[in-house]
Amino acid sequence: MKKNVKELENLIKKVKEYNPNVDHQIITKAFNLAREKHDGQLRESGDPFISHPLGVANIVADLKLDTTSIVCSILHDIIEDTDISLSYVEKEFGKIAAIIVDGLTKINKISFETVEEEQAENLRKMMIAMSEDIRIILIKLSDRLHNMRTLSALSLERQKIKAKETIDIFIPLAHRLGISQVQRELEEKSRKMLLR
């Protein structure tokens, strides 16, 4: 618990470096909600689930995205994995945040496993078309990057499936959007997993 609070403080400090006027209270509010609602949930590694939204938020901050993006990255799994409704997100965090979180929830429902090249291109196009706001894609890429950083808890077979999905779907998407730092790390981690 204390570790997560320290991670939140470090996240806010990181955001303040490029956005000195950041509304840190709304970020803290999102963190408190996510921590409460994901309480007791664990990642496959055994880590508290809240470590994942914080990890995604840190990647989003590395991309120097706005406060709404940070908030939505913390809340990106809250509709799918808890009893929080989209209307609650809108009431507490605003309409734009609700649109982004809803877009992330819809994208999370797409199955990326075992796609052929033509299907992969169609899935990339569908993800872009489904995204009313480009921040949805940027947060989803950050989500995938954090998952790739923490895949060691999965079986080798599942790691390879995730690596192939990343190569087929997410690396071309990062390239298309010109997010080279995310693209490079996704390539490095995916290729390393496929060579195992």
From TrEMBL:
Pfam families, per the entry? HD_4 (PF13328)
Q: Cite the InterPro entries for this sequence.
A: HD/PDEase_dom, HD_domain
Span of domain HD = 49-148
Q: Which PROSITE patterns match?
A: HD
**CDD domains named in the record:** HDc
Annotated GO CC locations = plasma membrane
Family note? Belongs to the RelA/SpoT family.
UniProt protein name: HD domain-containing protein
| Species per Swiss-Prot/TrEMBL record | marine sediment metagenome
